[in-house]
Amino acid sequence: MGALENFFTRVRSGGGNGQAAATLEQDVEAEQPAQQTGTEWGLSPEHLTAAYDAYEIYVGERARELDYRGNFYYCRQHDQKPFDMNGQALSQAPGPRPFPGSQGFLAASGDPRFVPLAMRRPNAPYRLSRIIVKAFTGMLLGQNRWPQIRSDDPDTQAFCEAVIKAANVRNRFTRARNIAGACGTAGLSWLFRNGRPVVRVHVGRFIHVLEWEDPDELVPRHVTELYRTFATRATKDGPQRYEVWARRDWTPVADIVFKPVEVTPQNPIEWVIDEDRSYPHGDEECHFVWLTNQPDDEDPSAIDGQPDYAETYEQLDTIDCSNSVFVQGVARNLDPTLHVARENPEDIKVIRKGSDNAIVTGPNGKVIYVTIPGDVVETGEKLVSQQRTQILETAQCVVTDPDKAAAAGTSSLTMKLVYAPMIGATDLLREPFGAGLVRLLEQMQRSAARAMGPREGDAPADEELEQSPEGSEQFEHGELPPEEQEPERVNFYLELPPRVVLDPILDAEGKPTGENNKQIVEQHPGNGKIELEWGDYFPPTSDDKQKTLTTLAQSTPGKSIVSQRTAVETAAATLNKDATEEWQRVTDEQQRMRLDIPDAGGGDFIEDTPEPAPPGGKTTPAPPPLEEPADIQKTALNGAQVASLVEVVVQVAKGELPRASGVEILAVSLNISREEAEQIIGTAGVEE
Fold it and tell me: What are the domain boundaries of the chain?
């Protein structure tokens, strides 16, 4: 039997510090290169030396471009500006300011010391880029817009849903979408730790693909993440913080973490694998998903997408400056400059402003406040609003005023018309992010299936035994020599929410009774295909549904368009009840009522006695009894009736209508018994 490997236990390579003594035997020296070169981790030798260009990855052209884009989302695009809005130099060190007083926003008389607006750091930036990214993320993955997982294998679908819940994939994916919307690219890595799936999010600027598996589909084979952080070391003068390189790699056979390396002007000469934090898996695929945002139309071969606010960078800078000038001017207008007109200005020593002070001016003097005219304030508001509209139109982002949206109507059709430009742009985002989510789930499915093996009853993928290599005839049953056997995966388990399987209960005739037996089974990844089902951006509202049903009912007068079961299920969904259980209660109650109803004549039930046979012993068979036509009114409801039923149930549940009144209304208006009405309303309106 080959070596045993716990799937969740890190497998350490051979010991030693990498410096072999000259006196070691030749066979011992032959075992060391695998550890030093990193081949067992899927690394090339140059990836562990100075040939790994850390500075090019961290501050190269691609990193600078992504950093520039992301600064608008993280509100750092003005950090390099050295002056504040008053024209004063921003300095962390205390000292005299080079320009006393406050400068205006327009240069006067060619003063060489004048600071232009482009060099002033806005004190009231609009942060519109952040609004745009959040709006697109909400449209793509917001409330009731997360895609549904579909698969032809129930085990696969249940496994994916459990993984999404256990790994908090929805939250991680939303964060990754925000990062990609800000700079154009994000990454997702994953692993199984102690039976639970773990998903991490990575910023596009810090990740770099060293080798592609499929560059056209943006499937990486070897990904590295590199960034700077701080570490602390003990010195004789106390703890000292210093900057270090933090690096992590993903290869087809392992997830690798390197030990921190102190930052110096040169590239690190050696990278050492931290085996305690690295995980070999042997899945033959990189546990990493590359996510891109909007495609780059200028460079179709680009591996990075475009941010949501692409090509609006200058406009975003301008609106920040305009809003800061406007806010600062209006704020100063609240504390305006006082103008005192007197014949002898030198007589004024101290002026106290406020309602509890008075200023004496004399017969020819006056005191006024110098304020900004109201039309100037209005012009500033219009300017900022116009700039905001232009940026949103360029980005195809719709941010509506709630008051205006409510006045225009909240129907599904109205919202689709209002958000039409944004819906078109979001449709383009569904493809890359949907493919990324499917790729993430497929990788986890394949890894878990490989470790757990086939399900009970599944046929192996290849039933033919491979031919034993030459020299292995002494091993029975086609086993390979121990040195050629792959490690066995043992003690593999998945700590996922259990899967509940409902088995329908059948009656004596083999028909479903409407009840189910609940059985909890172990999760298994299965072997089904994973697909996504995206919902409507703005599903029909209750008012839309009511109008649709009413129109259908009016177009088919006297015809039923909805069955009673559909009505019961709709009411159950409104009250957050189980639709199957509610329908079972209704059918049980109807069955009991039919058994309690006496015969049509009102008399006792008398068993029929057979008539004597006529002479000759021949009898004429009686014709089969005619089946009474079903009462369609009691088994199907039209659209208006369904709308009335739902509205009454909702009012009873909210306490706006007494329960007894609701029962009477349903019984009379829908032509059903009070017991049936009680069953439909359920526990709504019952005081606990």
Answer: 1-9+33-53+212-287, 337-370, 540-589+633-688
